[in-house]
Write a structure and sequence with these properties.
Layout lengths: L1 E2 L5 E2 L3 H22 L3 E10 L4 E12 L3 E3 L1 H11 L2 H20 L8 E5 L2 H5 L3 H11 L7 E6 H5 L2 H12 L4 E7 L6 H4 L6 E4 L1 H5 L5 H17 L2 E4 L5 H9 L4 E3 L9 H13 L1
Parallel strand pairs: 4-6, 6-7, 7-8, 8-9, 9-10, 10-11
Antiparallel strand pairs: 1-2, 3-4, 3-11, 4-5
Helix pairs in contact: 1-2, 3-5
The chain binds ligand C2E and calcium ion (3 copies).
Length: 279
């Protein structure tokens, strides 16, 4: 606390008050953003080693009326703290299912998978499984085209419940990817209990793979672990052909990153698919 003249105690200096004001404004704006349809999904393409398109990861963007495009790092943490991640996360899953439904109508896009990020609070909410099941059923989409990206820290908590939830969703085909893999502390013993379909190698191991021997060793270990568990491995943050080649050399055959495309709006994404598939 700060002495502010007289006997008055002020707990915050003006800078701190300003930070709090910005937070409150952001929170209020976030509440309105869903109602006003200011959220959009961008799509980042995922490729295999033969440069065939596998699908995409959906990444949320906020089109703010004054601030323009706002990245998730700016608002997802606050959305998690305030619980607003629940309606936002629901919107993401609904929108993803609606998109898979649209893709079902065209031969070019019919087999594309769509990966969606799920936050810890969202996964732990009551009825999460039912909410996903309901979306998959209402949109009548093949469940195996929806891939939920979970993080290691999210999975550590209450493993029995987690396994039961994942298995229930597996029943309707829903797939699971372990996002940011390698940044947590999961043991092989632990991972083998989880019905995972994919490991996603964190971009921090991809960035310096050309020069950092530790990163090379980590990637190799992740691929070896995945082979034991019969799980696919995708690398994120692949920016150069050199990185792609090195990953391929270590046995990683699925890729995502700026080398192929940034996350882009749906119309651009579909144009990209046409360009890559038609030739
Ligand atoms: P993430 O799931 O690890 O997503 C990967 C991030 O890396 C994305 O940032 C993506 O745009 C970026 N990226 C992709 N390729 C490259 C590359 O080659 N180089 C570099 N430097 N970066 C690349 P973005 O879109 O800003 O998202 C940041 C994080 O926000 C995501 O990290 C995810 O944790 C979270 N997020 C995004 N969308 C959602 C969502 O719908 N729900 C939830 N709960 N979280 C989301
Ligand atoms: Ca992700
Ligand atoms: Ca990631
Ligand atoms: Ca990340």
């Amino acid at each position: 606390a700060k002495q502010a003249g007289g006997n008055q105690i002020r707990f915050f200096n003006p800078e701190m008050q300003e930070i709090i004001n910005v937070r409150i404004t952001l929170e209020n704006e976030l509440r309105l953003a869903i109602e006003k349809s200011q959220f959009h999904l961008y799509y980042q393409i995922q490729m295999d080693s033969a440069n065939r398109v596998l699908g995409a990861e959906a990444l949320i963007r906020w089109m703010h009326p004054e601030r323009g495009l706002v990245l998730p790092a700016t608002f997802i943490p606050l959305a998690e703290e305030t619980g607003l991640i629940l309606p936002i996360g629901k919107w993401v899953i609904e929108t993803a299912c609606a998109q898979i439904k649209v893709w079902q109508k065209e031969p070019l896009t019919r087999n594309l998978t769509l990966s969606v990020n799920v936050s810890a609070k969202q996964f732990r909410q009551k009825n999460f499984v039912e909410k996903v099941q309901s979306a998959v059923e209402r949109y009548a989409v093949p469940g195996n085209l929806l891939k939920l990206e979970l993080t290691e820290s999210l999975l550590q908590y209450d493993i029995e419940v987690t396994i039961a939830m994942m298995k229930a969703l597996n029943k309707i085909g829903v797939q699971f990817s372990l996002d940011d893999f390698g940044t947590g502390y999961s043991s092989l013993q632990y991972l083998k209990r989880l019905p995972l379909d994919q490991f996603k190698i964190d971009q921090s191991f991809v960035r310096d793979i050309a020069t950092d021997n530790n990163d090379k060793a980590i990637v190799k270990a992740i691929v070896a672990m995945a082979q034991i568990l019969d799980i696919d491995v995708i690398a994120e943050g692949v920016e150069t052909e050199e990185q792609r080649q090195l990953l391929l050399g270590k046995g990683c055959v699925f890729f995502q990153g700026y080398l192929f495309s940034k996350p882009i709006p749906i119309d651009e994404f579909e144009a990209l698919i046409c360009r890559l598939t038609d030739t």
